[in-house]
């Protein structure tokens, strides 16, 4: 019995040592990434000091050219948007970057699925796992799932799904970007299916299942920006063949409550019916993004700068 207990103890000690080594190795790879998604994320979270930043999902990543914004507004700009993510990741990123400096302006392109409506919020924690120990990040995990407080004690859990990405980004990064901007160079050649059109039931606010946690963090971002002196501007970029923006009512309410500018071009007739401006029914191509960014900076020039 003593031998069995001794083996169990040594086995557990071995697991702890392995977990510590996994953590040390992964942190080294994250901090020394030469580029790729790992290098980009690390730059945004721990190094970036640009005066104007863009937040959002894939629509934010593909629709806002930071070079046009920088040239027009006379301030450095970086696009911090990330495909398939929204306010839960973006709030964490703002907490990290605002701990070392204060951006003058934050342009947030709000997307319904990732910023307003209910879905599995666990998936948005993926790109925050490396930075769990940074101030203000851990509490985001706890609000999404209280069990994350225990799970994140394990380095094996924290880094268990991106080893190939980490190694690749340290040896030969495959993905490139232009200050976070990733333009799309093809043009949509088809008409969207009926599923892309608003359904009659979607015209009623109560039919939408809004996510209280996402709305909470949208308001927390507003509060944090106001406290730090960052000019926050909410925006919604055009979506092809879209003529109803009622799904954005909670965002309109937040902007009204906190007296924030809202650049709403979701149903902009100058864009939404032009196939030459779109890569697909959700994302604009480079031509559309260039035209849209130029229009937005014209509106931004009219805002009071911090």
From TrEMBL:
InterPro entries: SGNH_hydro_sf. It comes from the Bacteria. This is SGNH/GDSL hydrolase family protein.
